[in-house]
Amino acid sequence: MPRPSASETWEASVTEHVPYVVVGAGAMGLATTWQLARRGRRVVALERFERGHTRGASHGATRNFNNAYGAAHYLDLLTLARAEWDELSRATGEPLLRLHGLVTHGDDAVVADVHRALVARGERAEVLAAHEAARRWSGMRFTDDVLFTPDAGVVRASAALDALEHGARSHGADVRFGHRVVSLDERADGVALTVDVAGERHDLVAETVVVTSGAWTPGILPASFPLPRLTVTEESPAHFAPTAPDARWPSFNHLLSPQRYPANVYGMPTPGEGVKVGFHLVGPVVDPDARSFRPVPAQAAQLREYVAEWFPGLDADSAEPISCTYTSTDSQDFLLDRRGRIVVGAGFSGHGFKFTPAVGAVLAHLATDDGFRAAEPFRLP
Fold first, then answer.
1. How confident is the model at residue 245 (pLDDT cuts 50, 70, 90)?
2. Which terminus of the chain, N or C, has fewer Cβ atoms within 10 Å?
3. What is the 3-state secondary structure (H, E, C) of the chain?
4. pTM for the full predicted model
């Protein structure tokens, strides 16, 4: 005879009623909580893991603040993100962006298109010849035109999480770690949530729920929710040690043809850890609760070969691998939408962190304004 599940053996608990609940308190969930709280909304954020955990996609010291986009919906979101990062920095006293510039190279047509899109919006951007870029950044090799955008760089990711939590709490938000949502059911009077807290059951009913649970999103949402396919992969960028400690380093995108290397490359300097270099979206599909936290050996070897070929200023044998997850839509566009009382932010596809406070603003609007819609590419089918 099968043993009863925990939910079947839990005793009934007193039900807590909350206007807004955010499920998942990584970067996007904390940003949404902050945005709701600063609008005067009573909000509770529930995170299944401990603060600062490394099981998802929000941990680590840096993320690329990459503004090399050509699509209007991403540039609109990026403009909002820059304003909101600045507002969060003012509110918390924590500088969150380091704008040392970004170089994008490897495909002259893409470089020209993105340059035109940025200049049309009044952004600072210039196209450099390969030899000029190599003179400026001697630790890198270039063979094509290079787009340089000086108002880009990195987000201080771990500091950003602390600032978002502090900002949310300062406006009265309740952020609860170690609270795992085990069921979520939309009803006529609200959304009922059952939460496991160290083996004890807690029940909540919210007027509106925002789900920002990353790789765990499909397991949180009701089966009837029209969620498109989300693919979870384990990615393994690495930090490499510079051979000249005083060399200048920008953030970078390298657009590669697939003949030799498996994907485009991104990276950025991370003080105290080296220069982060990684292939975009090449990792194996994984269960987020059963990851190896180790790189695929063949991909690690390819990354070493790439660094040896393209980065004369890095020690290709010094790799310190990092493990993180991507949760990707088929299009690699974000999912920001609402059905009934449930709002979803998901599928950030390895390029979402720079947009974090803007994503939080969009999700907060979706939660509080029935008539609001995100840009069309971000909507549910």
1. confident
2. N
3. CCCCCHHHHCCCCCEEEEEEEEECCCHHHHHHHHHHHHCCCCEEEEECCCCCCCCCCCCCCEEEECCCCCCHHHHHHHHHHHHHHHHHHHHHCCCCEECCCEEEECCHHHHHHHHHHHHHCCCCCEEECHHHHHHHCCCCCCCCCEEEECCCEEEEHHHHHHHHHHHHHHCCCEEEECCEEEEEEEECCEEEEEEEECCEEEEEEEEEEEECCHHHHHHHCCCCCCCCCCEEEEECCEEECECCCCCCCCEEEECCCCCCCCCCEEEEEECCCEEEEEECCCCCECCCCCCCCCCCHHHHHHHHHHHHHHCCCECCCCCEECCEEEEECCCCCCEEEEECCEEEEECCCCCCHHHHHHHHHHHHHHHHCCCCCCCHHHCCC
4. 0.95
Per-residue pLDDT band for 13 (boundaries 50, 70, 90) equals low
Question: Is residue 350 pLDDT above 60, yes or no?
Answer: yes
